[in-house]
Amino acid sequence: MPPCDFKPEEFKGMSKERMLEIRQQNCFPMTMKVTFYKKPVFIHQGHMQWLWDVDGKRYLDLFAGVATVSVGHSHPKVTAAAERQLKRLWHTTNIYVYPTLHEYCEKLASNLPEPLKVVYLTNSGSEANDLAVMLARLHTGNFDVITFRGSYHGGSPQSTGLVSNHSYKYPVASSLGCTNTMCPDVFRGIWGGSHCRDSPVQTIRECSCAQGHCMAKDQYISQLRETFATSGVGGAVQYPKNYLKEAFELVRERGGLCIADEVQTGFGRTGSHMWGFQSHGVIPDIVTMAKGIANGFPMGAIVTTPEIAASFNKAVHFNTFGGNPVASAIASSVLDTVKEDGLQKNSLDVGTHLMTELAKLRDKYEIIGDVRGKGLMIGVEMVKDKASRDPLSPEVMSEIFEDVKDMGVLIGKGGIYGQTFRIKPPMCVTMDDADFFVAVFNKAVHNCMERRVR
């Protein structure tokens, strides 16, 4: 494991047995259902890309609280900004004019292209997506919303209607007017080949496309056209080149607005750009963001044009905590830290290296089907075999997942079938960290293959 000169405090708190007892008795059963690992990790303290459990064991955190800790756990610059604001003012609301909110809104808007210059601050990504949909409906007079199958956009009653993954759906009516269209996944989808992605790593599928032309993109666009004609209107998936550009054109031809959910892809994580949509050569009408926006402090935002924002004045909307002074101060420090620490470039450099090394393991092992992503937003899709591309079973996924954790690395899981390992670390991770993970993952997959042979 790469060295770390930070020494955590000794844990002197509640026993693990007591914590589990409370978790089972006083927390919703859902809390236990989503608890990672057969032997849970009891987290005590964090510093940058590292976490320590209550027993003092150190872990390399490559999941960052679900892609939320953007610049590093308890980053000194961000911590100092939070402390300064806490000593000055904990809370007031936007019914008053206070400097921290306005300084941050101006700074955030300066990081987005024209005409995206109007900001509304929320508490979460789910809330940001709820408001974005309502704003789009108010502005256009249209009602229907199209999302991709397998997508995830939040857990609120409204945003779950945008989600097509059954794991997040409850048997109650939610968010009427939402339609799902085929996800343009060039690995698991119907169409795709080895030249489709704008990525350092392509799929293992053969490609018969002519030079400079992507047949998969044409086929997925035709499915979107069919969705428009018939409806009345992702674990980390990369679209075919130019798909999003044509999709935006189709939506706008029909009087719709395009919303980019940058909750996980924003703030430099994809490396090549500050925002995920920029690598597709498009400018959305509304952008939603959260997670990394404040390095784990609860906050979200929507950014749109002045014209669209004016549609929000048809009634009154008030948010008690949106733009809270502490949240604004932390978020402002996060933007500064991303630039001062060169974290967008680090995401590009370390992420590209990590994907390239993981692609070597893909070529080595039959059960690693696909490696994809940009920057430090990476998915590794596991399969029973490369020929069928059938998802690896949950049981085998759990074996590898536990093994990686026991060797000192924390990653995530996702995908429609839970078949994709998600790697979305704090953006301060190093090349040595990446190499350590590759060695751990190689060992975990090797152990899995040996168990299969036995």
Automatic annotation (TrEMBL):
Entry's EC annotation: 2.6.1.18, 2.6.1.40, 2.6.1.44
Residues of the signal peptide: none
Keyword terms: Aminotransferase, Mitochondrion, Pyridoxal phosphate, Transferase, Transit peptide
Gene Ontology terms describing biological process: glyoxylate catabolic process; L-alanine catabolic process, by transamination
Reactions performed catalytically: N(omega),N('omega)-dimethyl-L-arginine + pyruvate = 5-(3,3'-dimethylguanidino)-2-oxopentanoate + L-alanine; N(omega)-methyl-L-arginine + glyoxylate = 5-(3-methylguanidino)-2-oxopentanoate + glycine; N(omega),N('omega)-dimethyl-L-arginine + glyoxylate = 5-(3,3'-dimethylguanidino)-2-oxopentanoate + glycine; 2-oxohexanoate + N(omega),N(omega)-dimethyl-L-arginine = L-2-aminohexanoate + 5-(3,3-dimethylguanidino)-2-oxopentanoate
Location relative to the cell: Mitochondrion
Example of a GO cellular component annotation carried by this entry: mitochondrion
GO molecular function term, any single one: beta-alanine:pyruvate transaminase activity
Cofactor dependency: pyridoxal 5'-phosphate
UniProt keyword RNA-binding present: no
Domain of life: Eukaryota
InterPro entries according to UniProt: Aminotrans_3 (IPR005814), Aminotrans_3_PPA_site (IPR049704), PyrdxlP-dep_Trfase (IPR015424), PyrdxlP-dep_Trfase_major (IPR015421), PyrdxlP-dep_Trfase_small (IPR015422)
Role summary: Multifunctional aminotransferase with a broad substrate specificity. Catalyzes the conversion of glyoxylate to glycine using alanine as the amino donor. Catalyzes metabolism of not L- but the D-isomer of D-beta-aminoisobutyric acid to generate 2-methyl-3-oxopropanoate and alanine. Catalyzes the transfer of the amino group from beta-alanine to pyruvate to yield L-alanine and 3-oxopropanoate. Can metabolize NG-monomethyl-L-arginine (NMMA), asymmetric NG,NG-dimethyl-L-arginine (ADMA) and symmetric NG,N'G-dimethyl-L-arginine (SDMA).
Subunit (UniProt): Homotetramer.
Homology family: Belongs to the class-III pyridoxal-phosphate-dependent aminotransferase family.
Name of the featured protein: Alanine--glyoxylate aminotransferase 2, mitochondrial
Organism taxonomic ancestry: Eukaryota, Metazoa, Chordata, Craniata, Vertebrata
